Amino acid sequence: MSKIPYPTTKFLKVKCTSCNNEQIVFDSAKIVVKCNVCSEDLTQPRGGKAKIIGEIL
Questions:
Q1: Strand pairing of 55-56 and 11-15?
Q2: β partners of residue 33
Q3: Superfamily in which the 11-56 domain is placed by CATH
Q4: Is this structure's pTM higher than 0.90?
Q5: pLDDT above 80 (res 1)
Q6: Which of 13, 14, 21, 22 is close enough to 54 for a disulfide, judged by CB 3.0 to 4.6 Å?
């Protein structure tokens, strides 16, 4: 039997540190993801997994 491949990436719910807005982001984002309310950065790309700046819920 062959192994079933499972994804290594996932979606995360992140809370903005400045306005407490909750937003869903991809943990391997290749661009800067900004908060929809206050435009604060929530993620920074780092090649593989993104650096999550907000609080992960």
A1: antiparallel
A2: 43
A3: Ribosomal protein S27 (2.20.25.100)
A4: no
A5: no
A6: 14
Say which amino acid occupies 49: K
CA max distance for the chain: 50
Pairing of strands 22-26, 33-34: unpaired
Q: CA 37, CA 48: separation in Å to the nearest integer?
A: 26
Q: Pull the structure tokens for residue 47.
A: 């090649």
Cα–Cα dist 51/44, whole Å: 5
- What is residue 37's DSSP assignment? T
In this structure, what token pair is assigned to residue 42? 């929530």
For the chain, give the number of residues: 57
